[in-house]
Design a protein that fits this description.
Elements lengths: L2 E9 L3 H8 L6 E6 L4 E9 H15 L6 E7 L5 H4 L4 H12 L6 H11 L4 H20 L2 H10 L3 H13 L2 H28 L7 H4 L7 H18 L5 H23 L3 H28 L7 H36 L1
Helix pairs in contact: 5-8, 6-7, 6-9, 6-12, 7-12, 8-9, 8-13, 8-14, 9-12, 11-12, 11-13, 12-13, 13-14
């Protein structure tokens, strides 16, 4: 049983009404204590699936009540008479039904993670820089193992997932930051590979390089699968390392190939690599936006709901149109590119 603990600090004069409302929500256990002369402390132990509904209510209250604070903790272990006894058949059936659904962490936890992923910092910059160098060397040596190593350390999944998540919420400020961060990472990779390509004649005839300068319709499916895997891992707050490799497969090598082609003045090959990068990015975004929509990611406040209702369909329509346009370009220009 996945449980979380919500701590709520409530001013005394608002306590009776808020306490009554909180007790209406599903919970496993409920404790009340006096925090100070001015505030009461309420602790609520709830199942993970019930957290978001309670947090949505608390978020609304915190906008109008001064001195109101909420904390959320993950519970590792909880023992009581009920938990020690064997679960009934009905409870087991409920859990099996719940497992069949698309589960996720609360919107508030996910939003906090997205805000971190949308920021440019030294850690992100250094990992992008190092992964670009390693991947480019892997191309020059035609070493698949080295290229895979570069994809392991490339933090490219975070900003892309942040773009999809913020577009679902209609948070345009966060969307802009996420786009800038993603483009910043791609630009660093491109600059590093351009420099290697300009100063080195090696690597332009290797399989690792040539495979990333050609684009086919099947690459759309690779991007969609990568984006869906990344979105699902993010929703469940799983370790992003393995899934991040899958997203990096679609983004890092073709970006390196594009930079090396520009550095070698092989502009036709650079065009093919550019198409591959664009197809992969848009396919990842389409899958991630779709997964987030299906999982029920929604804002709470009225003005945010209105923005999200406009942003969500626009995002999906825009991405689909770009993908369809790219597919047409691929089909029309395939003979010229190859």
């Amino acid at each position: 049983m996945n449980l979380q603990l919500i701590e709520v600090y409530i001013p005394d004069h608002h306590y009776p009404s808020i306490n009554e409302k909180l007790q209406e929500f599903n919970h496993q256990s409920y404790w009340v204590s006096s925090e100070s002369k001015e505030r009461m402390l309420v602790r609520i132990l709830v199942k993970t699936k019930d957290v978001e509904e309670i947090l949505n209510y608390l978020e609304e209250v915190s906008n109008v009540v001064e001195g109101f604070e909420t904390l959320l903790f993950t519970v590792q272990t909880y023992l009581s008479k009920d938990t020690i006894h064997e679960e009934s058949k009905e409870q087991k059936e409920e859990e099996e039904e719940e497992k069949a659904k698309l589960q996720r962490a609360s919107r508030h936890e996910l939003l906090n993670a997205v805000e971190k992923n949308s920021k440019i910092n030294w850690n992100y910059s250094l990992l992008i820089l190092l992964s670009a160098i390693v991947a480019t060397v892997g191309f020059l040596k035609d070493s698949e193992a080295v290229v895979i190593g570069a994809m392991v350390i490339a933090p490219m999944i975070g900003p892309v997932i942040a773009i999809a998540f913020s577009s679902i919420l209609g948070d345009y400020k966060l969307l802009g930051k996420s786009i800038v961060t993603s483009l910043y990472g791609i630009l660093i990779v491109c600059i590093i590979s351009v420099l290697f390509g300009y100063f080195s004649d090696m690597g332009t005839e290797t399989d690792q390089y040539l495979d990333r300068t050609k684009v086919n319709i099947v690459d759309v499916f690779l991007g969609v699968a990568s984006g869906a895997a990344g979105a699902l891992a993010f929703l469940n707050r799983l370790s992003g390392n393995l899934v991040g490799v899958m997203v990096a497969v679609a983004l890092l090598p073709p970006t390196v190939a594009m930079g090396m082609s520009i550095g070698n003045e092989e502009y036709e090959l650079a065009y093919g690599a550019f198409l591959l990068v664009t197809v992969n990015v848009m396919s990842i975004l389409l899958a991630a936006v779709s997964i987030f929509s299906i999982s029920g990611i929604r804002p709470v406040r009225w003005e945010e709901v209105k923005r999200a209702n406009v942003s969500r369909p626009l995002s999906i329509t825009f991405i689909v149109l770009i993908i369809l346009t790219l597919i047409i370009v691929i089909l029309l220009g395939k003979g010229w590119i190859s």
